[in-house]
Amino acid sequence: MNETYYPVLASLKEGTYKTPFIAKLGFIASFLGKTVLNAVNPDRKKKMKTFPVWEPTTSQIKDNILQHFEKHQSELKQQIETSKELVEKGTIISSPANKNIVYKLETAFDIIVSHEQRHLEQAKEVLQLMTKLKILWIKNP
Question: What total number of domains does the chain contain?
Fold first, then answer.
């Protein structure tokens, strides 16, 4: 999901980004930003369907998944750090999934980080389940 924001950030930094008309209505950007941010809250009490562009692919878990995750986090951190001026200006962008969903760039970063936290919590749950299954298998092979 995070990487879908990278072209938006690149065009913002190049000065070629075209802000959608709806972004001129600040209250809509604020409302939509808060709504999306609440939807990706890491507590995951509600299941939600995502946009097709962000549907996960099915694949095998690779041995180097942790290295890949670490590299991805480093890239994300760099993207955020190099966007400081844009955040300070209150730049508004549209979601990579839908041009009519607009929010501040700062909110986009909050959404991304919250989404990462959500996946971290999912990984912890899977690890706990795997540990329980391993213990059960050892006791009852």
Answer: 1
